[in-house]
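Protocol step 4 of 6: structure prediction from sequence.
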Amino acid sequence: MSSVQSPHGELVGALYRDHRGWLLGWLRRNVACAERAEDLSQDTFVRLLGREQLPAPREPRAFLAAVARGLLFDHFRRAALEQAYLAELMLIPEAEQPSPEEQHLILEDLKAIDRLLGKLSSKARAAFLYNRLDGMGHAEIAERLGVSVSRVRQYLAQGMRQCYVALYGEPT
């Protein structure tokens, strides 16, 4: 890894050289698939290269594990999303099911939405989905989440902002 890729490429390179083997072992203990562990290891370092700022961590292994844990969580969440989608497909009569190509596109869209909403807190994400997918009103969502109606409005605004940013970029 060269410093041309990012302003802190040398730091990431040192972390990679010194701790990649340890991180890969840690991931292999947490993921059944060796190839997935390898991918997550690489994704961890790519994520670090993409950061605008990267101070040298005092505890490199704990730092790398925290970054990898977030990626691991995303991986498991997307796998659960895929399983839920496939389970729902099984409820549709075969003649009405989308083609394999359409199924793939739908799944990719679901993963993109999941990444988008993954930037929200769990309650904000739940509020947004309850409102947009289930048609629940503010008071009903507030009761279900155990928050105020004004908090639900804030959560919905956060969700709408994420959608706006995804479609149009950051407002100027």
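Step 5 (inspection) to follow. Residues 60-90 form the longest helix (31 residues).
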